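Renewal narrative, Specific Aim 1. Our central claim is that a sequence can be written position by position from structural information alone. The example that follows is taken directly from our test logs and has not been curated for this report. It begins with the C-alpha cells describing the chain, in the order in which they were read.
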C-alpha cells in the first residue's frame, strides 16, 4: 500500500513541477525539418525574429506571440545584425537590418567586396536594385558607433 501511494505522490509532484515549465516554453512550427536556426532576436514590438542559415544565405523570419508559425520576411546573402535604433542623418531609424546581397557586374561575375547595406527590418525585398536600402556602412565597427543593436537571445 505504501509503494502505490509514494508512486502516486511522485507523479503528482512531477506534474505540478513540470507542467508550469512547459507553459512558458516557446513552441515554434518550423517551415521544414532541416531548418538551421542561427539566431533569435526579441524585438521591442513584441515579435520574435528568427535568422535561418541556408546554403545560399540567410532567411529572416518573424513570429507573433499569438502564433506558432514563422512568417518569412526576406532573404539576404549575409546577415550582420539588427539595430534597435540608429541616430544619424538628423532622424532616428528603428529596427534596421544590416545585410549584404550578391551584387553582379553587368558583364558577369560578382563583386567580392560586399557592401553592408541598411534596410528596414520588415522590407520584403532588401536589395539595392529595388532601391529599398536606406544607407550603407563601411564596416560593422562604424555601424556600432552610431547604432544600438539587439543582442541575440539564442545563438
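The sequence written for that structure reads:
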Amino acid at each position: 500500500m505504501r509503494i502505490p501511494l509514494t508512486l502516486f505522490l511522485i507523479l503528482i509532484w512531477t506534474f505540478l513541477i513540470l507542467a508550469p515549465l512547459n507553459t512558458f516554453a516557446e513552441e515554434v512550427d518550423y517551415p521544414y525539418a532541416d531548418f538551421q536556426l542561427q539566431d533569435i532576436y526579441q524585438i521591442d514590438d513584441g515579435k520574435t525574429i528568427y535568422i535561418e542559415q541556408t546554403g545560399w544565405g540567410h532567411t529572416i523570419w518573424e513570429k507573433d506571440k499569438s502564433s506558432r508559425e514563422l512568417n518569412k520576411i526576406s532573404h539576404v546573402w549575409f546577415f550582420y545584425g539588427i539595430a534597435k535604433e540608429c541616430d544619424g542623418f538628423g532622424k532616428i531609424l528603428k529596427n534596421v537590418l544590416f545585410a549584404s546581397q550578391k551584387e553582379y557586374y553587368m558583364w558577369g561575375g560578382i563583386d567580392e567586396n560586399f557592401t553592408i547595406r541598411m534596410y528596414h527590418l520588415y522590407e520584403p525585398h532588401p536589395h539595392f536594385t529595388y532601391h529599398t536600402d536606406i544607407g550603407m556602412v563601411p564596416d560593422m565597427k562604424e555601424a556600432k558607433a552610431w547604432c544600438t543593436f539587439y543582442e541575440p537571445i539564442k545563438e
